[in-house]
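Per reviewer request, we include the raw input and output of the structure prediction for the construct analysed in the revised manuscript.
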Amino acid sequence: MDHRPFEDWLLDNQELTAEQQHQLNSHLRTCASCAAIAEVNLALSSVREAAPLEGFADRFQVRLAARKQAQRRRNTLGFFILVLSTVVALGWLAWPVLKGIYLSPVNVLGSWMASLTSVWVSVQAVMHTGAVLLKVIPGFIPAYVWIGLLVVGGGLGLVWVASLIKFTKVPQGVKL
């Protein structure tokens, strides 16, 4: 049984035509669910609305302002506790390094410089090795393999661009 128009009429309190009122009355005689909705609507429409006590809005505004102020205080206190605990934790973790700097700053600075120099030399060695390999490897691989690799790479690039176009297309307008 289709309750949709009848439930809408009952719940929205719509003005009904004579034909709609006749259909609704005949449906209410056969449908217990819709009849219960109509009964509840009738009971709710006969209830008198109670007005709030004098000064309710003012008391509500005062309580709301007090809650907001208390929330601001809790948030500020929580933020300061978070900052303080973070500073303490970082100080605890950094204490060995800070102690070394305090006791012997020259040794710490020397070890940092040695580490930076080591990293710099390693990067230069890797770059030099790569340059040598790029000069030597092309002589070992025949031209037709290079052409094949370029064709496969170009095909994969084309598939990638086509998939981007297909899957990222934003629909525009209204579909009918």
